Amino acid sequence: MATQDSPDRGLENADRPDLAEAGQASFDKIIAADSRIEPGDWMPDAYRKTLIRQISQHAHSEIIGMQPEGNWISRAPSLKRKAILMAKVQDEAGHGLYLYSAAETLGISRDVLNDQLLAGKARYSSIFNYPARNWADVGAIGWLVDGAAICNQVPLCRVSFGPYGRAMVRVCKEESFHQRQGFEILLELANGTKAQKQMAQDAVNSFYSPALMMFGPPDSDSAHSSQSISWNIKRFSNDELRQRFVGMIVEQVKVLGLTLPDHDIKFNEETGKWEYGELDWDEFNEVLAGRGPCNAQRLAHRREAHKNGAWVREAAAAYAAKKAKKEQVA
Ligand code: FAQ
Questions:
Q1: What is the pLDDT of residues 97-121, one digit of tens each?
Q2: 37 - beta bridge partners?
Q3: pTM tops 0.85, yes or no
Q4: Burial class of 12 by CB neighbour count within 10 A (0 to 12, 13 to 18, 19+)
Q5: Hey, which of 47, 56, 57 would you mutate to test ligand 1's pocket, going by the most ligand atoms within 8 Å of its Cβ?
Q6: What is the full DSSP assignment across 51-77?
Q7: CB within 6 Å of ligand 1 — which residues?
Q8: Residue nearest to atom 26 of ligand 1 (CA)
Q9: Which of 228, 209, 146, 221 is nearest to 183 (CA)?
């Protein structure tokens, strides 16, 4: 049983069966009114579990997602580009922190979540297991990866769980700047020499499919979608958001003077939906199984960074203890 001090306190309703009937009725009413569940409210165990799963995966994605671009801070082509990229990577650390905090309000500790990540037991977005090979890839990450993230996350501002939705509002504002910086990198390369334009095109070719796969498996294979939609966690299905994203980038790529590596993209007037070519879902499943191009490297790097940061955590804890003692005396 979870105790008040255990890291996963409050994860189950089993401790208070007397609250179940009234709690469920109140929860159903809040969801039906499209209003917000707050951390102190009764919620079904499965709702809490789903949110912890999604929010923690999202937080881990932000933290691991710092790596592909972080590698380029020291190699950015100018001081201005370096400053912009540093700000972006710092934002991602901040997003991870808001999200871990939102997950903590559900009764799980950040230490437990971090241990799950370091042990290789937690998921993070498939996209961050692809390499950033050159500066054009940094541009494609900003334009396509942050672009897909915005498309997925704007509806999450209206998620039924209060702390997650409020965190998303700020995250989305920052993601918009991230996407613009990526687009601008690609625009400059696309208007540069022939070789630079080719670099930009190669980067778009590499990141197009992995970015589309960020939205998750096709609806027919999405285990969690229908339940999450009924709880107002997801507002749209994976395929709906993927189609919306294709519609966005199909126009933006024209401004870049580049092309998308997919000849099957078209708007179907009858269904009102964007159609695109087959995606390689075997590749997606391989990445999810830990066998993508950079899975091992990303986790090894995170473990090393955690180890190297031990002295900072110890110093912060010692300072907090000293401060608390001082306040007690005063
Ligand atoms: N990668 O039933 P569904 C960013 C898993 S942040 C890995 O459809 P669901 C910012 C899924 O977990 C990017 N795993 O799942 C940035 C489940 O496995 P499980 C992160 C994936 O939850 C930019 C299974 O497949 N964003 O980019 C993926 O209903 C640049 C079945 O799937 C978020 O996390 C995937 N792509 O829908 C940072 C947004 N897709 O848990 C740095 C919040 C699916 O049963 C640099 N999350 N899976 O073992 C969501 O909106 C949802 O969780 C989905 C998946 C849409 C990702």
A1: 999 999 999 999 999 999 999 999 9
A2: 161
A3: yes
A4: middle
A5: 57
A6: HHHHHHHHHHHHHHTHHHHHTTGGG-S
A7: 53-54, 57-58, 61-62, 65, 92, 123, 125-126, 141, 145-146, 149, 152, 213-217, 222-225, 228, 234, 238, 288
A8: 58
A9: 146
